[in-house]
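hey m, so remember when u said the tokens were messed up on ur end? i reran from scratch. heres the input so u can diff it against urs
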Amino acid sequence: MATFLTTIEQADFDGMPAWRLTAPGGQSALIAERGATLISWEPAPGASVIDGYTSARELTEHIGNRSLVMAPWCGRIAEGRFRFSGSDFRISDAEQAGLGARVWAYDFHRVPAGDALQLETQLPAVDGYPWDLALTVVFSLEGGAQGFEHLSVTISVRNVSGRAAPVSIGWHPYVALPSMEGISNLSVRIPARTKVLTDSRMIPLTGDAAFAGVAAPVTVDYLGQYAFDDSFTELVPTEDGVVVTSLTNPARGEQVLVTQEPAEAPVVTVFTGDGLPRDPRASIAVEPCSAMPNAFNRADSAARILLGPGEVRALTATLSYRPSK
């Protein structure tokens, strides 16, 4: 009997527990339980869009932070130190070493949720971050208009501590176009009015000095050797109220879109993969974030990172793929 729902089956990634989603049209995704990590997404059989981990070692050591779920902070924290609610905290080097901190080290478990894959875990309080959090990541596949296929990822963090906590979240997927080797011929379009300026540590400058106006949209028609490792804000929504960063093969019309809600994720970071230990510049990271890097140390981010007891912070990102015309 034909099915019109996405199927979810237990799978294996290099000996590690994983789940495979398969849609009726043939698109599929593989997600490892460790870190709720997207390993691959094929919007059509044989068309690989996610440049994910290739081995269990890469995943367990989070080499390259591929498809990293970033929580309870996104981006770097200067020297691993921050002050919150009148107290000073110091994050250990091991916890700080993944841009998004701690999620990569935790195994998730599945909670039935129809034809979406819902994975959950607990982030217990630790030295340097003494708050208990509950984390849920939901993956779903769907088709769409104009020839696009979609993968949506929703990251939710609930504060299960008895006091307010600092929380920011993000997602760090590396995206590649199946028709292209490397990213040199890509056209990139980022709908932003402001670029975040940083120091040599990739920490945003102090106060208003961190913000530089740019012409919207930020467009590079031919990427070539151009290097991005930049965050952008003051994002410009479409008529539908969402923010869409696009990667296009201009010769063939093939396209990947990364869509985020500006209220949930007012920052997007773009990184061209320069210096990755494996396959540098083979793909490009487009990272929706709920706050800018080092937000825990910025007065202008204080309201955005505050999460009261029992409250939830969520972010949904959608990858959309359209093959060559």
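this time it looks ok to me. DSSP finds three helices and 25 strands in the chain. if urs says something different then somethings off w ur setup not the seq
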